[in-house]
Amino acid sequence: MTATDDFADVPERYRGLWRRLQLDVPGLRDTTTWAHWLQTARWHADLRVPDAARPAEVVGAPSHSPHPALALQTGFFGRTEVYLQPAGERCTWHRQLDVQPDRGRPDTGWMAFEQPDCVVETGLHGDFREVWQRVPGSTGRTMVLAELAPSTGDAAPLATHGARWLLSGQWLMRVRARRIRWSGESGAALWPADTAPGDTLATVVFRHPESTAALLDFEISFGRWCDGVWAIERSTLPALEGRRESLGWRRLDDRLAEVTSAAGTERWQVLEWSDGP
């Protein structure tokens, strides 16, 4: 399957897992936030966990009672578009699933590769500068899979706001959107009606404390996959950190792949698949 857009594959220099070394915004330099961006030829997943999202009371807290500080985490999944202009090279991350509410502006940056494994991003619609370094062992084989809706046939549609798997080299990410529904609204309504463009998740949680657990029920988990075992290093759901999950997959055809885990074997739709060099 190809993406439902006409974006070209991103250049090879973008692909792999990137770790943020530094963020500069007016009056602040951040070198401590855990921030990783995984990029395949077409798709991306991003997770950022600031120190403020991990106060002592969060560590070891029961998963059914998430701490409001977790609303400070950010992360998203979607398609990546790179294009060249005389003024420079621009990259836009088109977010399809997002921990945070819609920001009301594109996520676009000017990109400058100072070295093959170091890129500097300067915000086009925001005043910031980020320095990213590619992680060794993060290129080569890539895979992006999308969860299918329950069905008895092979032509099952994609699950609405379903999970995604992204693999690049040794590094794997799972993205699963929140399942919250608001009364009086059909489908998977992600945000209450009083959410305005630019509101943060922390703001929404403050307005709707009774829905804190549902609002924070958005998973982005990250870790190394090796010899059929995925070791989760960081997650928007802290209770998952440190877990080791048995996990494997095989491609069935151009459209489908089988994913085998402790929960059994399921069919997923192939969004991207490359065995690498």
Features:
277 residues; mainly beta; Lipocalin; 2 domains; eight-stranded antiparallel beta barrel; eight-stranded antiparallel barrel
Task: Show the helix and strand layout.
Elements: E1 16-25, E2 28-30, E3 34-39, E4 43-49, E5 74-85, E6 88-98, E7 108-115, E8 118-123, E9 129-134, E10 142-147, E11 164-168, E12 171-176, H1 201-207, H2 212-215, E13 219-226, E14 229-235, E15 244-251, E16 256-261, E17 264-274
Antiparallel strand pairs: 1-2, 1-3, 1-9, 3-4, 4-5, 5-6, 6-7, 7-8, 8-9, 10-11, 10-17, 11-12, 12-13, 13-14, 14-15, 15-16, 16-17
**Helix content range of the residues, please?**
under 10%
Largest sheet: 8 strands, antiparallel, barrel
Q: What is the CATH domain class of the largest domain?
A: Mainly Beta
Gyration radius over CA: 19 Å
Count the domains: 2
Helix/sheet category: mainly beta
**Side-by-side strand order of the widest sheet:** 1-3-4-5-6-7-8-9
DSSP summary, beta strand count: 17
The CATH topology of the largest domain corresponds to Lipocalin
Nearest-integer average pLDDT? 90
Approximate shape: globular
Oligomeric state, counting identical vs distinct chains: single chain
Low-confidence stretches: none
- Architecture (CATH level 2) name of the largest domain: Beta Barrel
